Automatic annotation (TrEMBL):
Gene Ontology cellular component terms for the protein in this record: plasma membrane
Keywords assigned: ATP-binding, Cell membrane, Membrane, Nucleotide-binding, Transport
Organism: Companilactobacillus mindensis DSM 14500
Membrane topology term: Peripheral membrane protein
Protein name from the UniProt record: ABC-type dipeptide oligopeptide nickel transport system, ATPase component
Any one GO molecular function term: ATP hydrolysis activity
SMART domains associated with the record: AAA
Length: 337
């Protein structure tokens, strides 16, 4: 991946929420780059900060309740310095967003055509005729078989999968360079899920967009992503190509996630369960390896006091040194879970 295609650079970004008058970090010192023509998956358990990262990039936080530091450089503009009017020029135009629940993202009272056209009315000078043509083109691009008919329908007349296709059509209407998809297939059944992921992949290829795909589902990541950032407790703990993450995972958290993933060809139903939980924001440790309490058999001396990201070659990065000698208890045979 050449650095020339990089267009989003997230630098040292932290977002803290105000809880009972005090600020607590939900994401801490995030550094990430997104390139054109790639799908970057952000993966981790519920509560690890994936959505907070997405909404921070999109400027969707109330400044009275959140403290955001760092820089989000999008094609030369630091998004974090924009006011609401400034952000509105980017959202829907150069940055498209796809949320988990297509029903709540659509207006129940408006026909599909009107909802897709709106974004073009706001961001382009298209005539009514041009917009109509583009609506049909978009519905076709997201795999809707009868665009004319669907354009005239209301959201409640469509299935969940169709609604998610419409949401994608809205997100890509102005050919954004960046698409942020937050759990885009979680509400859908497996077959439809695969179809929607195909649509996303096709769009990324056709539009040369960069896509940030947020998911807790490693199956989705394996199907779709070019690169992967694994998040734990508000930090990135490992980053690499999909191949590096799936074939040579390093961080104990990544390895635990992979071990807890159901395998199609695995006859053994006993899935690995990661001990404990992600700490709440108020209980988040600030020193040491945040994952250490969940791998208690690893000695303190194996962890760095202040874990940093290590580039272990070919841009494969891993936080903390504890990965070096890490083994699961059943691999060493010496510790019982
Ligand atoms: N507005 C808020 N006020 C206070 N705490 C928040 C707020 N939004 C998120 N959090 C907390 O921040 C942490 C990260 O949440 P976030 O929703 O970003 O995680 P996530 O990985 O996207 O999880 P999920 O997959 O369940 O959406 C959690 O502890 C959550 O409770």
């Amino acid at each position: 991946m050449g650095s020339s295609t990089q267009f989003l650079n997230i630098k040292d970004v932290s977002t803290a929420f105000k809880i009972n008058g005090k600020y607590y970090d939900a994401i801490s010192h995030i550094n990430l780059e997104v390139h054109h023509d790639e799908i970057l998956a952000i993966v981790g358990e519920s509560g690890c900060g994936k959505s907070t990262l997405a909404t921070t990039i999109m400027g969707l936080h109330d400044p009275a309740e959140t403290k955001i530091t760092g820089e989000v450089d999008f094609e030369g503009t630091n998004l974090l310095k924009l006011d609401e009017a400034g952000y509105n020029k980017f959202r829907g135009a150069k940055i498209g967003m796809i949320f988990q629940d297509p029903l709540s993202a659509l207006n129940p009272l408006k026909r599909i055509e009107e909802q897709i056209s709106e974004v073009m009315t706001y961001h382009t000078n298209f005539t009514a005729e041009q917009k109509h043509k583009r609506v049909l083109e978009l519905l076709d691009q997201v795999g809707i078989v009868n665009p004319e008919r669907t354009a005239r329908q209301f959201p409640h007349e469509l299935s969940g999968g169709m609604r998610q296709r419409v949401i994608i059509a809205i997100a890509i209407a102005c050919k954004p360079d960046l698409i942020i998809a937050d759990e885009p297939t979680t509400a859908l059944d497996v077959t439809i899920q695969a179809q929607i992921l195909d649509v996303l992949r096709d769009i990324q290829k056709e539009n040369h967009a960069g896509i940030i795909l947020i998911t807790h589902d490693l199956g989705v990541v394996a199907e779709t992503a070019d690169r992967v950032a694994v998040m734990y407790a508000g930090q990135i703990v490992e980053e690499g190509t999909a191949e590096q993450i799936f074939n040579t995972p390093k961080h104990p958290y990544t390895r635990s996630l992979l071990r807890s993933m159901p395998q199609r060809d695995n006859e053994n139903d006993d899935l690995y369960v990661i001990q404990g939980n992600i700490p709440s924001l108020q209980r988040m440790p600030h020193d040491g390896d945040r994952f250490a309490p969940r791998i208690p058999w690893v000695k303190d001396s194996e962890h760095e006091a202040e874990p940093t990201m290590h580039d272990i070659g070919d841009n494969h990065k891993v936080r903390c040194t504890c990965y070096k000698n890490f083994e699961f208890p059943d691999e060493t045979g010496s510790v019982k879970l």
